[in-house]
Amino acid sequence: MSHLHLDHLDLPSLRRVPAAATVVVPRGAGAWLRRAGRDEVLELGVGEVAVLGGVTVRAVPARHGGFRPPRGPRAEAVGYLLEGSRSVYFAGDTGLFDAMHQVSPDGLDLALLPVSGWGLTLPLATHLDPAGAARAARLLGARISIPIHWGTYRPAGLHHPALRGDRHRPARELERLARELAPAALVRPLEIGERLELP
Description:
Blueprint: H1 11-14, E1 23-26, H2 30-35, E2 41-44, E3 49-52, E4 55-61, E5 78-83, E6 87-90, E7 108-114, H3 130-140, E8 142-148, H4 169-181, E9 186-187
Parallel strand pairs: 1-2, 6-7, 7-8, 8-9
Antiparallel strand pairs: 3-4, 4-5, 5-6
Helix pairs in contact: 3-4
């Protein structure tokens, strides 16, 4: 879990994950999650590393808020670099940050990059839009980038015309912009349930 916001750490969804599974969370979120019923919780702060099932998990910086509304705990938002036979960066939610090129100095096999939000506005200091995700793909040296955080949430009861449009637009926009801003990165949008095998 990259941070405590409701659209990233949904307790009813988490209950569907087997109780024996280790849940990795930002440092400061562990006690709250244990009170919510999870026993296998591992906290990582930026720069801290754990090895789970032969995969090295490193918490890396994110530029995003970590407060759980309305009165929940605070824990720094993070991203994760997963390294085993391949290297994968999960950004969670983040804006561009100065040290993004240092997440994996040798480049990445795969970057999971957010390209949208769930409301009418997207504060670019703390979120990537398609243009920011294309720049991030270039900074990260990612061979393949998969857009995430698009096409799934609409605020309940909000029927603004901007939210009724093409849900695929952010992913397609990243594909278009990456050809210009990160030509070495292959952008591969996935539908829900679709799989991608890394070569």
